Amino acid sequence: VMQCSASLDVLFLLDGSYSIGKGSFERSKHFAGRLCDALDIHPDRVRVGMIQFSSTPHLEFPLDSYLTKQEVKERIKRTIFRGGSTETGRALKYILQKGFPGGRNSSVPEVLIIISDGKSQGSTATPAMQVKERHITVFAVGIKFPRWEELHVLASEPPERHLLFAGDADDAANGLYSTLSDPVCTATAPGCKVESHPCERRTLETVKELAGHYVCWKGSKQPNAVQASLCPFIRWKRVFIKHPSRCFRTVCPDPCDSQPCQNGGTCVPEGLDRYHCLCLLGYGGDVHCAAKLSLECSVDLLFLMDSSAGVTLEGFLRFKAFLKRFLQAVVGQDSPVSLGVAQYDDSVKIPIELGQHKDVIGLMKSIDALNFSGGRTLTGRALQYIAQHGFRSTPVFADVQDDLPRVVVLLTDSKSQDSVAEAAKYAKDQNLFLIGIGSSFMRAELTMVTGNPQQTIVYSDPQDLFNRMAELQRKICSVGNPEGCQAQSLDLAFAVDASSGVGLENFLRLRHFVRSSCLHFIINRDVTQIALVIYGSKAHTVFALDTHTSNSAVLQAIDQVPFLGDSASAGTALLHVYSDVMTVQKGARPGVNKVVVLLTNGGGMQDAAAPAQQLRHNGILVFVVVIGDTERDTLLRVAGSPSYLVHISSYEDLQYYQGLIIERICEEARSPVNLCKPNPCMNQGVCILGPGSYRCECHGWEGPHCETRILRGDSLRSPDLPPRSHVQWSPRGLQHFSRALQHSKRQ
């Protein structure tokens, strides 16, 4: 809005002396750049030049050198501090002799902007008066802790309109424009006016102070005589001095003064009468950031509210207000969500049963009726109770079961007085999806409850809680609407360092990380298969890709994984994954992307590069997660690319990288697949690609994957498998073969 567009020559005179110092000189440059924002720099309008002065003046650039605002500001940034004494008078005499270098010879108004601390080592009064007599408008700008008396002498009349302070660049730029707006620049914008208001000029001065008296000895007129006396003790100290003054600033009506943006939106003015709103995620239903959240996913949703003494009445009422606002924003007339609300302290109550209300008005009335109870904080007992009783439903028909995803949103702001780990595990084993909401100091406990930092929402202050509504909506619907790799087919193997270099305590952290990572995947024969390998000097398969076909079975198996405790060999582990895990015999599916996640402290990596390269050559991604200090070059050789290497400083921070690691795995799950990598053909069979399919060329063996030896006479073949050695397979038929092969092995 404020920009001087007249024909005008502006010359900056920057103090580059030692009394300013390099730091304050950089601030002077920044301030000069900000003042340029109030000037319409153009060859036909405002031109800008600069002189730096200390012991002698130095022309940095004349007024006709740079003719756009961007060029001028870039050149100001490149100005180098020169140092020297503060000879302001000599700099003014230079201007009197040379004029404005590159200027238009007084045919247009001339403005001199002096940026200094006002501590000149010579007289400035006479040259300053001579400059002003030439009708040059002089602005004096104080930097650091200026000597305002000298700046008053330098500035044009009235000094209160020509004295500025560089400490507040925006305010000083306004002051410059306000003074120039009439009559130099074009008239003030409509609706704007120049107003004066009281202000202060501050500086730091050294003053003399009487600190007290001490006993001293003085001579006497009498010979050989001295007398005791009290002498003053003086000390010098630096104090802030404030000089009352008046400032003139241009005030314009702000279209954002009426606060038109709702729900935490930020109003951005566009000129004098227009604006637009920057809305928080989940808002923007109209230009004023109305709520546009919706729970279009189909879930059974139960809110579990902490009503204990630890959360306090104020906290309980805050949770109620948040719950009401959230449900008003997301629940519509045709919402597919079945809602319930429970509260707990010593005991658990479910005042709003799941699906009890079909309309928002009745739901709001029931939430209003919730009362604070104030007992002990038994979060573990509450989770156990909800897992057993919170989602009981009576279907209309006995043979119809409610198979919607079940989501529990825990709202708490008080540390539990009982154990939450076992109760949370029990709830997840009942296929409940847990989301935790609490303030920052609850982060660790909420992560323990949910098993995943990505399923926790922590807020920094009470108002911040209400800004998290869109985040909660996304987390609720992420379970009902699997996105990304949850819906992609993937064969995933974890190789976990269980050596003495990691130690038992840190191994348990790695095991917990694997467990919580598995919660991100739908585990069955058709979507994601997961294998787990632990290693020390030798590698052991805890379970293969085809061992477990459900999330709960995988989680139970992970909890039983033992610590080994000997030396580490990551190369042995990767070789084991290649030869004994990612194979058709062990359940690997041709046509499905394959990823190995190596979790290690970096020990025993010297022999890992070659097997890692072998895995990559066969289409298996190796993702390396290293905790602690290790040589990066070795790690890069194993990972193959910085994109597949995550270096974490401590085991405590591992959980915060889970989202990044899962995201990278998901990207791989969506990438194109080579059906012949890794080779699905057994017994040295050769895989030959066809359009959307492949076949195995066998030698001395037969079957779709060369799994049956050819015998003379009656051939002993696996049941249910065709005898031909050349069979074309497409990805659709691969899983049927895999199941048949497993059945034949069990037979």
UniProtKB/TrEMBL annotation:
Residues 9-180, 300-476, 491-665 form the VWFA domain. One of its GO terms (molecular function) is calcium ion binding. CDD domains: EGF, EGF_CA, vWA_collagen. One of its GO terms (biological process) is calcium-independent cell-matrix adhesion. Residues 253-290, 672-707 form the EGF-like domain. Its main location: secreted. InterPro entries: ECM_Assembly_Org (IPR050525), EGF (IPR000742), EGF-like_Ca-bd_dom (IPR001881), EGF-like_CS (IPR013032), VWF_A (IPR002035), vWFA_dom_sf (IPR036465). It is found in: Secreted. One of its GO terms (cellular component) is basement membrane. The keyword Ligase does not apply. Keywords: Disulfide bond, EGF-like domain, Repeat, Secreted, Signal. Forms monomers and multimers. This is von Willebrand factor A domain-containing protein 2. The lineage of its organism: Eukaryota, Metazoa, Chordata, Craniata, Vertebrata.
